[in-house]
Amino acid sequence: MPSELIELSGHIIDSWTLPRAWDIIMDRGGNFAVEQMRVRTSKTEPSYARLKIEAPNDEILELILS
After folding, report:
1. What's the pLDDT tens digit per position in 1-29?
2. 47 Cβ contact list (under 8 Å, min separation 6)
3. Which positions ≥6 away from 19 have C-beta within 8 Å?
4. Counting C-beta atoms within 10 Å of the first and last residue's C-beta, which end of the chain has fewer, N or C?
5. How confident is the model at residue 43 (pLDDT cuts 50, 70, 90)?
6. Handedness of CA 66, 31, 46, 14 (dihedral sign)
């Protein structure tokens, strides 16, 4: 199964970036695993997430990543 690691950082929780990324991955036919996640507790500190995205084929993986 094709896979790719992606990293997100910044205000990924309060800006809804992380939940939107999860929705895109699933809506386009993929799955994900959260490999690492740091959620900061102040507005000035960035949060971080590393996701492993898996897709049934290369075309779907490219669609997810686009």
Report:
1. 999 999 999 999 989 999 999 999 999 99
2. 9, 10, 11, 12, 13, 18, 37, 38, 39, 40
3. none
4. C
5. confident
6. positive
